[in-house]
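Support request, please re-run this one:
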Amino acid sequence: MKIAYLDCISGISGDMTLGALVDAGVELSALQKGIDSLGLPHCRLVAEEVKKKGFRATQVTVEHVPEHAHRHLHHIVEMIDGSILTETQKDLAKRIFTRLGEAEAKVHGTTIRKVHFHEVGAVDSIADIVGAAIGWNLLGVDRIVASPIPTGKGTIEIAHGRVSVPAPATAELLVGIPLRESDVECELTTPTG
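Re-run finished. Output below.
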């Protein structure tokens, strides 16, 4: 059995997940090819080796043209269904977005059909999530295990205004997940993570 372990000492975000997958051996070009097939405007993944607190890591950044689109789940599902991703990759990406939609619907007191994906519907978040679905599939792991998750603390600014950390959707996604205490004044864990 092939197991992936995510040591989330500094939290987890979509770009951190992509960096970990590339660092574990997933080809950046394979992720880019799948993301290109979504029809996102000028979206490019860039990987570079960085040092964080004295340790080497791969950082993946999503470069794209700024946009102000607010997508619904069905828009994102249509993009995924129309892509060249394998059925397994499509299924995982859609399950992740559905789970995010359920969390957003719950915290906003609405239905999943009416949820507008703001930050999570943006190009970089779509690339993070779809890229992760591709990467996990290509890595071929049977099970993913993660350490307890630190969320950070303080407040952040989102489309709905200033909210506490973890953001409401992140908090909903973390229900039942072991958390780790953190005194860091910022958002360490994001919905895409």
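Residues 34 and 85 are 6 Å apart (CA to CA). The two ends are 24 Å apart (CA to CA).
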